[in-house]
Automatic annotation (TrEMBL):
Pfam family, one: cobW
Record's catalysed reaction(s): GTP + H2O = GDP + phosphate + H(+)
GO MF terms, alphabetically ordered: hydrolase activity; nucleotide binding
InterPro entries: CobW-likC_sf (IPR036627), CobW-like_C (IPR011629), CobW/HypB/UreG_nucleotide-bd (IPR003495), P-loop_NTPase (IPR027417), Zinc-reg_GTPase_activator (IPR051316)
Highest taxon of source: Bacteria
SMART domains per the UniProt record, alphabetical: CobW_C
UniProt keyword terms in alphabetical order: Chaperone, Hydrolase, Nucleotide-binding
Protein name stated in the entry: GTP-binding protein
Tagged with keyword Transport: no
GO CC term (a single one): cytoplasm
Source organism: Aliiroseovarius halocynthiae
Signal peptide residue numbers: none
Its biological purpose: Zinc chaperone that directly transfers zinc cofactor to target proteins, thereby activating them. Zinc is transferred from the CXCC motif in the GTPase domain to the zinc binding site in target proteins in a process requiring GTP hydrolysis.
The CobW C-terminal domain, residue ranges: 261-355
Length: 377
């Protein structure tokens, strides 16, 4: 798909996954596929990973190798410079690309990179995050998730999890690993890669943060498509009290836990007052911002003819996108929250606040949800 068919900005895919899981193997298949379109690859070099560069250099002239060392520590300045330079060269006609894939180092936390994509004034007007693709190694993944919090973060932030090395495990082990991944992030889609091969297109168009998004795109993005009966439903403690005020429909949620990670999906059946949603989100970010690994959703606001989609990582939220040409009739708001160190009871209490605020006469009607916001905590 051409970038201009979306919102004019170039889509950027963040390709992440722990050390040695198969990111480069996947990328090499992708860039060698003649139908994959024109892709600019941005990678950083760490340790002896320069081999990646050699492999990719053979396949395309449009490879940018960042010499910055550990991506998670120094990406901000360099990513900005690199993407700005790419865009300048594209405008001058020196480079031609429709999308960018950033391969992170195995130990990188994708959070800072996602923040940079949103808050950097040089990047945000020209690029948009198209999705976070996390490669998870079916063979070593279970033990890595036990030991490495970065690996857990990478799964938590994913829009798509690509399961690699499934040839090295039994079907039972694979099912167990998939269950574990769903426990961290139930909204991410999952596909299997055969030595890096995935169906073309599976990696792209993942984010629903665009104005022409369809209901199916949103379902995929929020993990609703595979909404099979949830064995953990009912454990979340989100049962609505009988005395809840009628002004706000009762939130319902399903949740999964993975040690200290909570992955919850919240549904509000009817449109919600803007100030109420704003208050809830602001409070949650202010109190728990550092622990929010990923939050995304579609929100129907009272008095508005169309919903908004939004997403954020920790305390940084992208500008919400109004779906002005929305034709769906379902007015259910859906929010996915994946957080670390947040108990179900705390999230439940926050939802209670949300519900009660609906009748708060002094609540400020100061606008629609959060815009790109950075709160110092
Ligand atoms: N058996 C098997 N091996 C795989 C598969 N995918 C990748 N590998 C192998 O796993 C090893 C690591 O793959 P890479 O693609 O270099 O992994 P990476 O995530 O880029 O590694 P780093 O950049 O070092 O973090 C290589 O030897 C690959 O050939 C797979 O599906 N099955």
């Amino acid at each position: 798909m051409n970038a201009d068919e979306l919102d004019g900005r170039v889509p950027v895919t963040l390709l992440t996954g722990f050390l040695g899981v198969g990111k480069t193997t996947l990328l090499n298949h992708l860039i060698r596929d003649p139908n994959a379109g024109r892709i600019a690859v941005v990678m950083n070099e760490f340790g002896d990973a320069g081999l990646d560069h050699d492999l990719i250099e053979e396949s395309t002239e449009e490879t940018i190798l960042m010499q910055s060392g550990c991506l998670c520590c120094s990406i901000r300045g360099d990513l900005s410079k690199t993407l700005t330079s790419l865009m300048a060269r594209r405008k001058r006609g020196e480079l031609s690309f429709d999308r960018v894939v950033i391969e992170t180092t195995g130990i990188a936390d994708p959070g800072p990179i996602m923040h940079t994509m949103v808050v950097d004034n040089l990047i945000a007007p020209h690029y948009r995050t198209d999705g976070v693709v996390t490669v998870a190694d079916a063979a070593t993944g279970p033990s890595t998730l036990e030991k490495q919090s970065e690996a857990v973060n990478q799964i938590a932030m994913a829009d798509l999890v690509v399961l690699s090395k499934t040839d090295l495990v039994t079907p039972t082990e694979l099912t167990r690993f998939e269950t574990r991944i769903a426990g961290i992030n139930s909204s991410a889609k999952r596909i299997k890669a055969q030595k890096g091969q995935v169906p073309l297109g599976a990696l792209f168009g993942l984010s629903a943060m665009r104005s022409n998004v369809t209901t199916d795109d949103i379902s995929d993005w929020l993990g609703m498509a595979k909404a099979t009966p949830d064995p953990l439903a009912g454990l979340s403690g989100f049962a609505a009290p009988d005395s809840a005020p009628a002004a706000l429909p009762l939130p319902t949620a399903h949740a999964h836990h993975d040690h200290k990670i909570i992955s919850a999906s919240i549904e509000l059946e009817h449109p919600i007052p803007a100030n109420v949603f704003d208050y809830w989100l602001d409070s949650l970010i202010t109190i728990r911002g550092p622990d929010i690994l990923r939050m995304k959703g579609i929100v129907h606001v009272e008095g508005m003819g169309w919903p908004f989609v939004f997403h954020g990582v920790q305390h940084i939220f992208d500008a919400p996108v109004p779906l002005t040409s929305w034709s769906g009739t379902d007015t259910t708001s859906r929010v996915v929250v994946i957080a670390r160190n947040m108990s179900l009871s705390l999230l439940d209490a926050s939802l209670e606040t949300l519900r009660l605020q609906a009748n708060e006469p002094d609540a400020q009607l100061d606008g629609m949800m959060v815009h790109t916001t950075e709160i110092s905590i």
